[in-house]
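Side project, low priority. Logging it here so it doesn't get lost.
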Amino acid sequence: MTGARDVPARLGTPDARRCLQLALAGLWLLDAVLQCQAFMFTKGFAGMLAAAAAGNPGWAAAPVLWAAHLAGRGPALANAGFATVQLLIALAIAGRPTVKAGLAASAGWALAVWWLGEGLGGQVPGVVVHTDQGSEYTARSFQAACQRLGVTQSMGRPGSALDNAVIESWHSTLEFELRAVEHFTTRHTARAKVAAWIEDYNTHRRHSACQMMPPVTYEKTLAA
C-alpha cells in the first residue's frame, strides 16, 4: 500500500528540495553565460579582480592580487576556466547522481568568487569617501553601507563646489572616456568595465599632478 507522498516520486515530479536544486543549477548556468561576455576575455577581467583587493588587509588582498596576476597573463584562458567551472557545477547539481558533489563544489566556488572577485564583500577600513551633500550621500542607506564597510564619510560645505573639485573632475573624466562611449547591457558588465577603468587609471596612467607617475606609484613614493 502506498500513500499520497509516494505519488510525486512515482510520477517523476520533483519535490520542493529538487526544485531548489534545479533553480540553483539554473543560476550557475546563467553565471557561466554571463562569464562568456567578450569583455571578460580581455585584460579588463584581471583589472576587475585586482580592483577587489583595494583597501583590504594584506591577508585578504594577497590571494586576490595573485589571482589577478595569473588572469592578466592569460585572460582568455583564465576566464574560460571560470566559465567552465561554473558550467560544470550547474550540470553536476542538475544531475541526480552528482548533485551532492555539485552542491559541495557550489559552496566552495561561491566562497572563492566572493573572496577573489569581490574582496570578501569589499572590506575597506581606513578609506575616506569625500562627497557633496547630495541626497544620495546623506541617505541612511548610504551611511549604513559606509559604516558596514568601515568607510569614513566626508562632505563638502553646502554650495561650495570647490570643496569637491578633485572628485568632480574624476567623475567628468569617467563620463567622457567610458560612459559616453560604452553601452552596458547588464549591471555586471558595467561594474566590470568601470572597475577595469579605475584599475588602469590608478595603476598605469601617468598624471601630471603626480609628477607624471600613476597615483598608486606616487602615493608609495610619498610614503617611502
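Brief comment: The CA atoms of residues 60 and 119 lie 7 Å apart.
Revisit when time allows.
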